[in-house]
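Quick start: what a row looks like.
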Amino acid sequence: KLTDCVVSGGTMTWSGNSGVQITIGQGCVVTCNTLICGNDGNKVVIEDGEVYSSALCTGGTLVVRGGRFASDPGLYLDSQYEAVAESQTTDHGTVNYRVQKATSFAAVVIRAASGEEESFASIPAAVAAAGDGDTVRFNADWVDPGNPYRISKAITLDLNNHAISNNVGYNMLNIAATPVVIKNGLLSTPGNSSIVFQNGAHVAYLTNCLVTGSTLAYSPSAAELHIGDGCRFTCAALASGHETCHVNVFVESDDVVCTSSKLFDSGANDKIYSHLFVRGGKFAVDPSLSVVGGRKAVAQSVSTDIGTCNYAVVDRTGEETVVAEA
């Protein structure tokens, strides 16, 4: 444990071993370039002091339970702590965040194995702490998660009637695990896509969500996005039509409503490289070219909670199912 120490230079600690821990306590001033690197067994716990490092963690495990920071320590906060924006100029520079015991909790992780719940002061901290099969239940909106924020475990995000949004038009969520479930809330970005698959052909499921803003999905590989009950779309398009996009979007419920003016946004030479498979739903534009599974789109004006749809997907009653579709 370090107390009343100044740490400067390159990296404060590196270890390739397990079971290594350094605690930074009262009176410490850390101005080194990087706080911690190495493998996961190399651990630093910050309880107090001032940290001016430009890179907090490039490897290993960092746990923050106190102190003042020049950069946002939100990704490394212990579950019961929060970072408050509060600038102060000192002899060593400016600290912009103060860490304190949380006064409210933005998310809860529900463990798949035990059903136990653990509260977190920030949504990024909850998502980072969740394991495969766990559910992260939101108690607040998640604004500007990243460019994009990488979901690397097979978890469920229960938005609990809250929103994930950004204000700058970045790609928002990068699905990098299978399966990832997103349900019960709002997704919105003014540019690029709400959901991207930048790390392989993974699979995600969307239920009971409203998607507004720009395009819903983009992927450079043959990833899958399955759209289920209760989904509503006013976004610009369901999928990117760009030549670098190869996402497969499946609309699988009659309870889906899409008032988007286009199913695909435009791509190079207006060629479509993504695929849309429609097995149900109501649409503002004709989805006939994408309808599969022995169904068809019929002209039918329907007033919905988000606008008027002009087409409904129904069974081919009394018609022979096209073999190619099956």
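That is the whole record. The CA atoms of residues 108 and 119 lie 4 Å apart. The longest helix spans residues 123-129.
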